[in-house]
Amino acid sequence: MPLPSPQSSTSAGPAGPAGQELVPWWRDRRVLPWLVQGGVGLSVLVVVAFLLANLIRNLTAAGLLLSWNWLGQPAGFDIAETLLPFQASDPYWRGLLAGLVNTLRVVLTGLVGSTLIGTLLGMASFSGNGLLRGLTRVYVEVVRNIPLLLQLVFWYFVVFLALPNGRAALQLPGVVLAKSGLYLAGFGAAGWIGPQLVNGVWQAPLRFSVEFAALLTGLIAYSSAFIAEVVRGGIAAVAKGQWEAASSLGLSWFQTLRQVVLPQALRVIVPGLNTQYISLAKNSSLAVAVGFTDLYSVAETTLNQTGRAVEVVLLLLGTYLALDLLISLLMNGLNRLVQIRER
Amino acid sequence: MDTLLRRLRHELFASKVDGLITLVLLGLIGAGGAGFLRWALGQAQWAVVRANSTLFALGRYPIEQQWRLWLLTALLAVATGITWGMLRSHPRPDRVGVLWPRNDRIAAVLLALLALGLPLALGLSGAVQLRWWGITALLLLWRWLAGRFGPGLPPLLKRLLPLGLPLLYLLGMVLIHGGLGLSPVSSSEWGGLMLTLLEASFAILLCFPLGVLLALGRRSELPLLRWGSVLYIEFIRGAPLITLLFLGQNMLGFLLPGGMAPERVWRAAWVLTLFAAAYLAEAVRSGLAAVPRGQLEAARSLGMSLPQAFASVVLPQALRVALPSMVGQFISLLQDTTLLSLIGLMELLGTARTVMANPAFLGRNAEVYFTLAVLFWCCCAALGLGSRALERRLDPAALARSG
Amino acid sequence: MRRSLRRFDSGMRLPTAFRPLALRRFATLAAPLALLPGLLSACAPDGGSGVQSAKMATIKARGKLICGVDGSLPGFSFVGPDGRYSGLDVDVCKAMAAALFGDPEKVEYRNLNSSERFAALASGEIDLLSRNTTMTLSRDAAGGNALNFAPPTFYDGQGVMAPTASGIRTLKDLAGKPICVESGTTTELNLADRMREQNIAYTPLKFQTGDQTYAAYLQGRCVAVTSDRSQLAGKRSSFPQPDAHTLLPDVMSKEPLAPATVNADPVWADAVRWTVYALFQAEELGISKATIAAKVAEAKANTNQADLRRFLGVEGEFGKQLGLPADFVAKIIAAVGNYGEIFDRNVGPGSRLKLDRGVNRQWKQGGLIYAPPFR
Questions:
Q1: Where does CATH 1.10.3720.10 sit in chain B?
Q2: Among C288, C259, C289, C284, residue whose Cα is nearest residue C374
Q3: Angstrom distances, CA of residue C107 to CA of A190, A195, C85, C110, C269
Q4: B190-403 in CATH: which number?
Q5: A-contacting residues of C 177-236, CB under 8 Å?
Q6: Which residue in A230, B70, B207, C62 has the most C-beta neighbors within 10 A?
Q7: Where does residue A200 fall: left (phi above 0), alpha (psi -120 to 50 degrees), or beta otherwise?
Q8: What ipTM does this complex have?
Q9: Could you give the C-alpha distances from C358 to C74, C119, C231, C366, in angstroms and in order?
Q10: A50, A162, A303: residue with CB nearest C119
């Protein structure tokens, strides 16, 4: 791999116009960039061509050349919980869409939850209370140094699957947490309805499976630790004089943070949040480990039923890339907003 | 005593709200701690960890070949001891001539306790326990020897000494894999902590140069290099690792002519490397951005060629700035190795899953996951600590003081 | 260009130690040129005529067979405490290795979950898939998964297992309840079909691996688990209290479990097919692991026993026609025994599963195990 070319618009190198005829052509800085780029480009092209040729040859031999007709075939499998009505006779594309909707559901709730908790944790690390500060520190250090996948299977197999079922379930007003799922009160056909036990099975207007709950808990716990660090960095970047000025105006600690420091800190926080949001979106694909049917899970089943490995992987990569771009776009917009307000 | 009390009061009970928070937190800590102790000492059945400790450490590595891994561990202990001793005996700005600073004494005692206690806790046999003592003694002995006689070594030898580390890595590969007269051990039999560390170390070592090249490419003024790097970095960063791993495991066969694809373990290692390189490139890029442009111009005006200027002026500064985020990437790389269990490799988490499928240990999830969590936490925290120590050592202010 | 590449692929003239390196260097050089011919000749199928099989050449050059198995299914493929694989599926791999190399241990096993098995086979990751895989039209068809199935080694049916205490006795009792199922299996599809037929609403909980599926079932996340009946029996035998779980009488589907190879290499597929038939035929002829040596001696001594002589490779060239050694049948039986022995040892009376032979009896006893003539 060659280093970047010596061509540089601002620096005045040793080879001026006078020295031009002394320089052999392969060191000429008008030629060299093209040489370097040509070399790199050619080798990349060769490698890609080689791989593609193999791909086409192997796919042809296996009778699996690219085709998208299978998307319209009936899927034949069911999906446990989905916002989009889906049944086994629906086509694959609807199944994949239902999976995508499930992924989006996890990502959106995860974003909101981890932002809230992360911000609180980030603020707590500036608290006057030493114990609170210490605990926040411990939380962040523990969570960040343990792999997410390990945390997810822990939440699912150890915590959520150990929950009691039926009458013994954990009950709060309007909320029931049982092994079969998380039940929330909401508006049903007959107005406001809380969770009820019918024939030993909980019923409620809002119901989430424990798989969803475990995935969400794990993702939020993990991401909030990283977001807390981002928020902490942002707050630390605000000049100390701002705190002093605000408190000399008689603002309380919380008021200072909320009205003076955080708005300024956002400038630093938003780009950091972007990275964290994108990793949360990608990490949601670990849902397969806890039995939640997200996009990746549906794609894996589809791939298995149809044998269309290349097409399915292409679809997956494209969708996640689009999701990341969307998040980046929104966050960049937010970033502009924050920067303007700062002036 | 009085000042301590006053400080405590200031920290914990400065106001009514603070006091309330403190009390609630204390209550939570107490309840949580008590619950954990009750579980750990009463309900938990640690037999699952004890009975499978070899499986967790090495996977299905054949028993008659395990002496090689003991040898490798001993060699690593010697190398660690020498490195440690040489670093300490090397003159430092803040503590010249202190061979055994307090931290080192604590570390030595901790190591000794670990060597004594861990085998006992795991119920290892006497012979194995003896080996652990030997290895720990070896480490401490070489630490002492290197600290004592290291500075007296001829300068040439001292300069050549670091070359031993890559050699040791290669030797370790040979020991694990076989070859050079050793009977080969198929990579499908590697597993447990060994596989986790192997994959992580391989990816960390290789993603570093790749990441630096990509970062330079991204900042290059040549459009093809720049856009190529941007495309690669953004593509990799946009894809979930599990998709890439799946691609590497099950579709590489489509992309290469028959029989050319490397073994599964290496394939996963390469996917991890290529994945991490994109993230590392971003860390290095932010480091490069922090180096003032004048540095490059100054170096060039001194007559350095561009590669020279980059290698000896710009990159060292950029890498120092990027160090914390680079180590952050290494830590997440180590954590990402757990995803290999989803594609059927027997690294730590994969081993854990097969162990828990064993009817004798059904439902012992909590014990196994807790053990793995502690293991990972220690490895990652150690990396983090190492990085902070390195940061302090490379701090230009400290270097200037030592001037 | 392409032909020479292929010759390198199966070329035995180079010392094996140099082959990969030479091949790699050659391939790199050939890369730019490989593009065009690769595209042009993309329609020519691999494999060729006669007993030229790219796959078998690769396997022989490698010196071992790579076999995809489940790896955690008692009775079919399971790793013992000593790290050795055993089971009915594993014995098929061993039989194939014995046929190829005369040594049943020359196998490398790959644990595959149900979602990755076909991709692993199609991409050449494994040579042979022997992982309780149901033979179906779409998996066999060139327009589907494009697999090539050997004869079923176990005729199974899908069943449902539920805790005895739950009171679940029929499928109807499962209405509105969560059911655990391994994703990417025919089981998952059959479940959907049967429940749709009977108009029963249910919640499928899908997991990537059998381990997770049964872990979730045992932890009570679902009230029932569905899979092939043999698999359920196998798993149940490993549970702490096997009696606490009941197999429902409903048989939801036909599940002929068969080894599979890729469509692209019919020569290799034939070798696998007739290796399986050899196991069946040996049982029919009463040739077992214990009697194989005597039978071979008998065949050699007695020129009148033409059937036996052909079957054991004393005369004729069946082995050669398949690209296998002449005495491949004798090697197989000496290594793993006949089908009946394999069945008894792994899932039958000689195992913890204690499954009945059922439809897996020889055809003469009214079962489905039937080998076409070795002629």
A1: 190-403
A2: C284
A3: 65, 56, 10, 10, 17
A4: 1.10.3720.10
A5: 178, 183-184, 188-189, 191-193, 195-196, 202-208, 212, 215-216, 219-221
A6: B207
A7: left
A8: 0.88
A9: 19, 33, 15, 9
A10: A303
DSSP E strand stretches across chain C: 65-69, 72-73, 77-79, 85-86, 107-111, 128-129, 147-149, 154-163, 178-182, 203-207, 224-228, 245-247, 254-257, 260-262
Mean pLDDT for chain A overall? 83
In chain C, what are the domains? 2-44 (no CATH), 58-153+258-286+323-365 (3.40.190.10), 156-253 (3.40.190.10)
> Mean pLDDT across the stretch B164-189?
84
Q: In this structure, are residues C274 and C161 in contact, taking their beta carbons and an 8 Å threshold?
A: no
Tell me if chain A has a CB within 8 Å of the CB of B212.
no
Most confident range (mean pLDDT) of A241-255, A325-339, B5-19, B328-342 is B328-342
Contact between residue A324 and residue B243 where contact means Cβ atoms under 8 Å apart: no
Tell me the per-residue pLDDT of C277-326, one tens digit each, with 9 for 90 and over: 999 999 999 999 999 999 999 999 988 888 899 999 998 889 999 999 99
Q: How many CB pairs under 8 A join A and C?
A: 131
DSSP letter for B313, please: I
* Interchain proximity B293–A9, CB inside 8 Å: no
Q: What is the 3-state secondary structure (H, E, C) of C92-105?
A: HHHHHHHHHHCCCC
Write down the residue that tokens 């198929």 correspond to.
Answer: B186
pLDDT tens for residues A314-326? 999 999 999 999 9
Nearest CA among C157, C372, C141 for reference residue C276: C372
Q: How far apart are CA C295 and CA C108, in angstroms?
A: 31
Q: Which of C40, C129, C219 to mutate to test the interface with A (most CBs of A within 10 A)?
A: C219
Token pair 């917009």 is found at A333
Cα separations in angstroms, B337 against B168, B268, B330? 23, 9, 11
Longest CA span, chain A: 95
Specify the pLDDT at position C337.
Answer: 95
Nearest CA in chain B to C217: B363
Chain B residue with minimum CA distance to A318: B239
For residues C125-140, average pLDDT:
91
Which residue of chain C is at minimal alpha-carbon distance from A78? C192
Q: Is the four-CA dihedral B9, B12, B13, B19 of positive or negative sign? A: negative
C-alpha C157/C-alpha C229 separation (Å) is 6
**CA C308 remoteness from chain centre:** 27
Rounded to an integer, the average pLDDT of C106-119 is 84
Residue given tokens 């944790």 in the structure block: A121
DSSP string, C109-137: EEE--TTTHHHHHHTTS-SEE-SSPBP-H
| Nearest one of C374, C372, C256, C289 to C324, comparing CA atoms | C374
